[in-house]
Design goal:
The protein has 1 helix and 15 strands, in the order αβββββββββββββββ. The protein is mainly beta. The strands form 4 sheets. Strands 1-2-3-4 form a 4-stranded antiparallel beta sheet, with no helix packed on it. Strands 5-6-7-8 form a 4-stranded antiparallel beta sheet, with no helix packed on it. Helix content is about 10%, strand content about 45%.
Length: about 210
């Protein structure tokens, strides 16, 4: 029986060595800066966005507070709700406009899995829905300042890189399809888009478009 033979002993020895190596490695770790906890309770606190001036916005999705976009006060530890909305699945800050772009799932023609793009003006606190029934995720604004938003579009169980024209409110696919595509980022010179990509029967990878 392999469980009582040398095979089992080897596994135990390897586990012991791993524990010893891990413990020894702790002493070799560099000293890091202190951690400041901005939130302490709740189930889901996601997508933190840090903007100039030290403000941090995040998405809250738990059952203790109403879901939406929150702004924590570092001094008091309390958070202010800027927008009450469920289903938010990404958050992005555009510095020139001083607005937050986000995508959120909502009901559309009796289906909940549609996701659209919204814009929240931080000065007026007004939110504007930019698309309806488009299945768009992870919006990022083009640094060039043109009327484009890069995002992920879901079509027939495939994810594509897409661009949304803010004037026409129409999206256009600009890449091949993948099993999953997420967490987009645009280079400062507007030449490249990076994203997390998963192809069929393969692990997640970082891709540059």
């Amino acid at each position: 029986d392999g469980s009582d033979g040398n095979g089992g002993a080897d596994v135990d020895n390897r586990n012991d060595r791993t524990k010893d190596d891990t413990a020894a490695g702790k002493n070799d770790l560099p000293i890091t800066t202190a951690v400041t906890w901005l939130t302490r309770q709740g189930k889901f606190k996601k997508y933190p966005v840090l903007i100039p001036g030290g403000k941090i916005f995040y998405v809250n999705q738990d059952f203790q507070e109403y879901p939406g976009i929150y702004l924590p006060d570092i001094k008091t530890g309390k958070s202010q709700c800027l927008l009450k909305k469920s289903g938010i699945n990404s958050l992005y800050y555009s510095e020139p406009e001083k607005v937050l772009y986000f995508s959120a799932a909502d009901y559309f023609k009796a289906f909940y899995h549609y996701s659209d793009i919204y814009r929240l003006d931080l000065k007026t606190r007004r939110v504007k829905q930019l698309t309806k029934g488009e299945r768009l995720f992870y919006p990022v604004r083009a640094p060039s300042g043109d009327d484009k938003i890069y995002c992920v579009k879901r079509v027939k169980a495939q994810s594509y890189l897409a661009v949304l024209d803010l004037k026409t409110r129409r999206s256009k696919v600009i890449s091949d399809g993948f099993d999953s595509l997420a967490y987009t980022a645009v280079s400062p010179d507007n030449r490249y888009i990076a994203a997390s990509v998963k192809r069929k029967n393969q692990e997640w990878a970082i891709a540059l478009f």
